[in-house]
């Protein structure tokens, strides 16, 4: 099962809609609760990253019997130092975004913690791609 | 414990989400950072925060949080109230600050 959603940069009103849609699908598919909880966290953070930092983005979700693969591609400023961006507490979010309780520097760390594999590639000035894999059966990875 | 027991026990005002008042509460979580809540809050908890914008409902819904207490008499935005009704997540309000309301909730749930 594959589907694609678009995200607009700055559209905080809709942040979480994709995670919510995927959560409902995973429930219908009877995916283990502990697995869907992890995916929902990772997806939400991925959405918020695009909304808070990029101009636009696309999330592709691909669910099969053994795993859920998510690719989040955005057009935006990119990440100059990925290692630094992965550090908990490091954020380049604006003061306005932080005031809303976003930009705590936990997003990418939350995504890594809640997926079985995460790859980031980024071209500064162009955009960022994050690829996540989560196995439906915990031991399959 | 039922939300209605907590509303009575802590003298909370129900702002919206009346259709979710039969939700059960299993515990509490206190944070104003959305990434912290999305990463660490548990299903069935009641969430205490000073954030009032609509994203708190999205986070609460994704985490199956039972209700939100907004502290210090802060007024949630119109969008937040609307989404609370749609998602059936009660928005509760107190004049108390986070420290005091969390202390009382802890005592009540103990």
Question: Mind explaining what this structure looks like?
Answer:
The complex is a heterodimer of chains A (141) and B (110). Chain A is an alpha+beta fold and 141 residues long. Chain A has a single domain (2-135), classed as Histidine kinase-like ATPase, C-terminal domain (Heat Shock Protein 90, 2-Layer Sandwich), CATH 3.30.565.10. Chain A is built from 5 helices and 5 strands. A 5-stranded antiparallel beta sheet of chain A has the order 1-2-3-5-4, covered by helices on one side. In chain A, strand 2 and strand 3 form a beta hairpin. Chain A is globular and about 40 Å long. The two termini of chain A are 20 Å apart. Chain B is an alpha/beta fold and 110 residues long. Chain B has a single domain (3-109), classed as HprK N-terminal domain-like (Udp-n-acetylmuramoylalanyl-d-glutamate--2,6- Diaminopimelate Ligase, Chain: A, domain 1), CATH 3.40.1390. Helix content of chain B is 41%, strand content 18%. Chain B is built from 5 helices and 5 strands. Chain B has helices at residues 3-10, 34-40, 55-62, 78-87, 98-109, and strands at residues 13-16, 27-30, 45-49, 67-70, 91-93. A 5-stranded mixed beta sheet of chain B has the order 1-5-4-3-2, with helices on both faces. The longest helix of chain B has 12 residues, at 98-109. Chain B is globular and about 30 Å long. Chain B starts with a helix and ends with a helix. Classes of the chains: A alpha+beta (141), B alpha/beta (110). The interface between A and B is medium-sized, with 22 and 19 residues.
Condensed summary:
The complex is a heterodimer of chains A (141) and B (110). Chain A is an alpha+beta fold and 141 residues long.
Point out poorly predicted stretches of chain B: none
Number of helices of chain B: 5
> What structural category do the secondary elements of chain B indicate?
alpha/beta
Which descriptor suits the 3D outline of chain B? globular
Largest interface: A-B, 22 and 19 residues
